[in-house]
Specification:
Elements (H helix, E strand, L loop, with lengths): L4 H4 L13 H11 L3 E5 L5 E6 H10 L1 H7 L6 H4 L6 E2 L5 H11 L3 E6 L2 E7 H6 L3
Parallel strand pairs: 3-4
Antiparallel strand pairs: 1-2, 4-5
Length: 130
């Protein structure tokens, strides 16, 4: 039997709205014990992915004070990566890894914008080589 994306994905995907503040997002990641999450709009479409790396980048290059000076808090929509890579459930782990390397990302979603079936992270792929 050849492994496929559907065999190694995490089927329980939690998403966040783009309006979530950075403080709320950091707390959410801690509570969920994850490093990132898809960003889903009000009509259920995946519009981006946000991660701890995006949080660090935002704070390092923009800083909370920059946004507070404008009268608003940083939101997930401000820091998310809007280029989401989706893979079909029958893709091989090797092909998933190649896509991650090509796009320089640490997670892909299994499915499409309207129907996410799971998420695969770089750690999921690393577990395969144990």
């Amino acid at each position: 039997m050849t492994l496929q994306a559907k065999d190694i994905m995490e089927p329980e995907v939690v998403s966040v709205p783009p309006e979530m503040t950075l403080d709320q997002f950091e707390e959410f990641l801690t509570i969920q014990d994850i490093d990132g999450a898809p960003v889903q709009n009000a009509v259920g479409e995946i519009i981006g992915i946000a991660s701890k790396t995006d949080v660090i980048r935002a704070l390092r290059f923009q800083g909370r004070d920059c946004f507070k000076a404008s009268g608003r808090e940083i939101t997930v929509g401000d820091i998310m990566t809007d280029e989401v890579v989706f893979v079909p459930p029958d893709l091989s782990p090797r092909e998933v890894a190649e896509l991650m390397i090509e796009h320089r990302i640490h997670r892909v979603l299994v499915g499409d914008k309207r129907g996410v079936r799971g998420i695969i992270t770089a750690f999921d792929l690393l577990r395969l080589v144990r």
